[in-house]
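Quick start: read one record
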Amino acid sequence: MRWLLLLLVFPASLAAQADGDAPLFARRALLSPDVRARLGVGVGDYARLEHASLLHADLAGSGKPGVVALLHAKGAVAAAWFADPDAAAAPDSCTGFAASGEMTATVAPFAGAGAVWVRTTLKTSELETTHCRVLRLWRGRLVRTLGFRESALEKHPDNRTARRWQVSVEAWSPLLALLIRRDDELDGETLAGTHAAARLQFEPDGCGGWRFAGASTDCADTAERCRAARLLERDGLNAEALRQAREALQVAKEDGLPADNPRRLEAAALVGRLEARTPAASLAGR
């Protein structure tokens, strides 16, 4: 199970639209020394912000929505909370985190309370990753209560295979769980026999956040992964076939199969054959 968790944990949204009040709240947010320190900008440096948007949310449960201003600059995000949007003053609280890429946000119920979900997506030629951070109020202060890699797509050099991660959240007060699934793809379709999944459960830590409370896992067995490896081998995708064969062998070891078990022997034979025919240069970074 430890191997599976290491493989899995890394780890539809509405775009937050800047409205006419975004510049006003951004300038008010910059009155806070904490916000300025997080962003590395000065008072009134609104023009140096890469992103500024507002979310109206009743995070306090008072029946009157407050405002969360999201500001992005220099690879950092600051989230400022205004409990009373009509009060012309600095924010009541703020938090932040490092982030790069395109930012979107939405408001949604979370573990029995309103929360702001902030997503940042970063794309390169080989990897597309979306990180999710969940912000909520804790004793009147805005806190980042959870952060995880919500999705990722790793494109392989052969231009036919890829590895995809997807995370969903189950929340029921006061607990929550992250449901993580990883699949390999061939020509844009899920490759049978390559799935791995985990369910990570968390409980409140007493400080507004969460602590790990247990996990369960499920993944394709050695025989399934060997079948996937042979399919890839027949297509001439030896580097990816070797990855699958090595994982098949690792699963066999994790499952406690003895060295002379036929499934473990098959996986070991596949690894040996594919290592012999796969150029070392093609395995760089894999």
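The chain has six helices and 13 strands.
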